[in-house]
């Protein structure tokens, strides 16, 4: 540790700290525009000037290290000042320069009320200018459907360029020309091609980049802010849902170092319009082949008449990808009371099961733990589109010290160099037998990481492939004291929670695929829109949107989305997370657990709770780890891997294929969004151009 004096306060900080970090450790506030904790240092804006004792002029604190400061003549610690008259005058001069060309359009700027430049101008700006030349004019750029540009406001902090290049891993933004003629632009003015592109608008300290879908829809001080969790994938990113009245207006990231740092995907952010479009807002009953509006009592009576006349062996329940733990648990209790064993939450056909231990289906390394891996093997997954923020962590690890990264499956651009090993199970067998050079890289690594994706598991031979991967993890020492390098990457927000609850077929029960193909006469469909149900079965669909599940339904029970209810989710690493209600469901739509509780009364099998708190009390009694919010319950990874390795089985020769065909249209909320449809069309266009 190094000693440094900041405004008379002596602090101990790591010598690699910058003066800006040291000042903040001492409690001093340093203004900045170009500096960002997660990006490389540019030193462009000079707003962070501080006075170093003995230096001839103020220095940029973001680019000056503590170890570079000279001690005093008698060995005293270096001394800096952040509040002296010299510093204040220097910052006022910087602000005056920044405002020479910046348009004074704050009343109509979408960034107003959340603009760093506006805030700092209040502290360091003056009410007159000594410059009377015409302000420069810069044409606005086209960056796609998500980012709106007003380039006259740009102060060339280059945060956007550094983010797209360093974090997102795509070189879509850059600077052209020099000096007064410098412009930030996308090459050939094409739409940005990253799944994380909208984060640049959050990073912009002025109003040059703003969120296009939200333009002129609200002012930030009008909004009610609610902490929640993203359910567009299984990462469980921390988000903040901002609403006005009954309507969600925007979704922003929250800082969570263990999961998403401070980024979210474009899908997580911009599905806001999908929350209100194509919504189911009243019950429906199919009569003479057509759906007609009905009352709740009529819908429940129709269901009860059908269920009471059906053998429990011919009744089944399937859970979709966006369901919270509470409603899955309520549905499980209802099915148990009816004597139904045909239950499944794996609508994609994955072979993961709690029978092999919790460690057999979790991302055991944890998302933050990726940064400690020194060799990575990805099997049957494209993390860039299946779990973009897991991919960001792998890229972050690669940028620090590139480990060998092997890929088995689709040869996709993951934004970092990979060694493409092969397309299918044959390559995995070669690695296990030591007939591939990458096997040596895994065995030579101290902390090897094996990531198994759903593209390898959602197939008939998935269990044999999972067993092969477990055998490989054992042979290369991926699971040992202090390191759990065997990890399963999920794509559905509800999957881990459902597996924790044991929502899988009971003894003699049918899987989701078997039920959908005609194995049952009555099917309870809890938001499962990615599975096609064959004709013949009576389908009760409980969901939010008029998607595939609603089209096939005989009775529709309108439910609340994740922003309209309080629910528990468990992410791919097993972290228990809580989503809070930010708005209210439209029309007659209700929370899923409440619908199931009311239905149980009509069916004559009343569930043992009357409130969400009572439901959770029973849930926590049966599954205590679900009460530990933001914690990961320990799993015996070694025993799980050993159990999987002993399963064996024969594997096919088909190549692994990612289950995510279109990143932007993976669930009913996204498919209802016009913004996501536009993004999907552009992505398809890019793929066609790349194929040529």
From TrEMBL:
EC number: 7.1.1.-
The protein's name in its UniProt record: NADH-quinone oxidoreductase
Gene3D superfamilies, alphabetized: 3.10.20.740, 3.30.200.210, 3.40.50.740
Domain of life, source organism: Bacteria
Ranges of residues in domain 4Fe-4S Mo/W bis-MGD-type: 223-279
Record-linked PROSITE patterns: 2FE2S_FER_2, 4FE4S_HC3, 4FE4S_MOW_BIS_MGD, COMPLEX1_75K_2, COMPLEX1_75K_3
Domain 2Fe-2S ferredoxin-type: 1-86
Job of this protein: NDH-1 shuttles electrons from NADH, via FMN and iron-sulfur (Fe-S) centers, to quinones in the respiratory chain. Couples the redox reaction to proton translocation (for every two electrons transferred, four hydrogen ions are translocated across the cytoplasmic membrane), and thus conserves the redox energy in a proton gradient.
Organism annotation: Microvirga puerhi
One Pfam match: Fer4_NDSU1
MF terms (GO), sorted A to Z: kinase activity; oxidoreductase activity
SUPFAM superfamilies: 2Fe-2S ferredoxin-like (SSF54292), 4Fe-4S ferredoxins (SSF54862), Formate dehydrogenase/DMSO reductase, domains 1-3 (SSF53706)
Cofactor(s) for this UniProt protein: [4Fe-4S] cluster; [2Fe-2S] cluster
The 4Fe-4S His(Cys)3-ligated-type domain, residue ranges: 86-125
Family stated for the protein in its record: Belongs to the complex I 75 kDa subunit family.
Catalytic activity: a quinone + NADH + 5 H(+)(in) = a quinol + NAD(+) + 4 H(+)(out)
Keyword vocabulary terms for this entry: 2Fe-2S, 4Fe-4S, Iron, Iron-sulfur, Kinase, Metal-binding, NAD, Oxidoreductase, Quinone, Transferase, Translocase
Note accompanying the cofactor annotation: Binds 1 [2Fe-2S] cluster per subunit.
